[in-house]
Amino acid sequence: MPDFRPILFIIGLLLTVFGLGMLVPMIVDLAFSNRDWLVFLGGAGSTVFIGLGLVLANFGTTGNLTLRQAFLLTASIWIILPLFAAIPFIFSDLNLSFTDAYFEAMSGVTTTGATVISGLDTAPPGILLWRGLLQWFGGIGIVVMAVAVLPMLQIGGMQIFKVESFDTSEKILPRAKQLSGMIMAVYIGLTAVCAAALMAAGLGPLDAGVHAMTTIATGGYSTSDSSVGIFDSALVDAIVTLFMIAGSLPFVLMILALRGKPLSLWRDSQVQVFLAILMVICGLVAAWLVILKGFDIPSALRYASFNVVSILTGTGYSTTDYGQWGAFSTAIFFMVMFIGGCAGSTSCGIKIFRFQILFSTLHARIKRLSRPHGVFIPHYNGRPVADTVTSSVMSFLFLFLITLLLLSFALAATGLDPVTALSGAGTALANVGPGLGDIIGPAGTFGPLPDMAKWLLSLGMLLGRLELFTIFILFTPGFWRV
Length: 482
Fold this sequence. Notes:
By secondary structure, the chain is mostly helical. Among the domains are: 266-336, no CATH class; 355-480, no CATH class. It contains 23 helices and two strands. Strand 1 (379-380) and strand 2 (383-384) form a beta hairpin. Helix 1 (5-21) runs parallel beside helix 4, helix 10 (205-216) runs parallel beside helix 11 and helix 18 runs antiparallel to helix 19 (418-429). The termini are close together.
């Protein structure tokens, strides 16, 4: 059996920070004279108590984690943190059941954005801020995991993004600790700039702060049931769209750009493909709205660009019920929810680089068929792709498809209609948020679903955020053998 002490020590540290984070919404509720401040005080006290207990009991046991410990730590963090994050939801005026509270917390920490709560417009301010903080904490955790942990675990082709493999990363940030610090600085800076821009556009401090945190985290939790559409502002839509795109770009390349190499971001093939896909899909949906739905061109561009960017990046905001735009747009939204943003960002989905490697591999195979004696090697970003990376990407895509089908069947078995089951499975695995249909579409919530469906979707969100293999490997007998 692996040594669990280093794992428990790190979890204890994270729980301590998590508990201290509950003091922020507690202060907000106090300022608004809302009695839920007692809930946050109690949640903070219990979480910090358990966190410090784990730290003190396992102090001095940390070191270089083994591969098995890294897998266990990654999975444990995203399972345990929602348990404590659910405390305010259970005991607040919302009075959610444990199932609903855990679903909401899991959706927040994984930056999925699916919600069971209706009546957000009248919800306590502390709860609204806590939902935003959950996604903000989850977003920075996702970036660090994507940059430092998943490449080491060689999951889904992520080994191609090992920090030491970048030509320039070693020169500017030779140590992982420095890299994490710079990522945190960029993350906080983007959040602050986004919040300031939203306040300048007319939003209040609470609305601006929550939406800034959930925009940069590409999470999508809002302070209103109508999401960003409640503000009915083209300027707010433009600001949020811009920062959703920023949150979907590789943070390591942003660091390079801020340190005097701005072209390193724009020359990256993953960024180029991501932006190209955005422009093409936004153009198609806008043309559909103009030609067949009677929108004027400015309105079509505004609504199409915001909602396409929101779904593609996995943020999950909405400014209108795009489910009413017709079959073509619905099919487009269903397909793009799986694409996601760039690796090393807060975005979700399959990720752009995997599609690039897939098409590069297919192109090389086709060439090999026409010229059997030629040597054709898949390339990514101008570099040859190793066979281990190619096989890892193919394995991930196959497992993603199988998991999507199995989860859809399981949800259908709970009594959900086919559209709700399939789109629910897709939005959970891709960590997008809203699905399709009248129940879980952009105008609905996940509240009416059966409890079993909510637990299945919570599992789907966990699997999608941790790139599938991190969880599935824990159920293989070989993982536990010494």
